[in-house]
Amino acid sequence: MTFAIHGLAVARGIAIGRAVLVASSRVDVAHYFIEADQVEREIARVASARDAVVEEINRLLQGMPKDAPPELPALLDVHLMLLQDETMADGVKHWIADRLYNAEWALTSQLDIVARQFDEMDDVYLRERKGDLEQVVERILRHMKGLPTTVPHPTVKRSSGARQQDLLLEDIQDVPLVLVAHDLSPADML
Asked: Which of 85, 89, 102, 160 has the fewest CB atoms within 10 Å of its CB?
């Protein structure tokens, strides 16, 4: 099967390899109210997913090649700082405890508020950090929904029955790849 894709190249020349689509779609989030006795469980779900993302980013930092550009660890450090931001954590708890939002809805509601604050900043660099915040929240949501992330846990092995299209990039070692994406951020490359 042959088809053509048109877009902007990020490097000169011709690339030949397996095409890999980098999807940038957001995780679907269900909006529903919880019962008062479920508040602690929902808060714990967010905290657990947040801890998993912190662990994931720390694994990335530990596995970073020595010759990696210094911007990569700096980007991951920014993501770690965003994960430790009390404004996000307290806001999510507020949405869950006071409004009885489910965990995913609370997380995206707080993201909307903080993202608006980033949009209003005068400093261009700080305004651009909104994208980092969105990526961090996306990682948390993926963990909460049990969806695959970009970094497999070292103990996780792929099942032999996995379909070809379900393989992660980590499953394809030493194979030339051509990444196809609508928008590609540095964090997508990690």
From this structure: 160
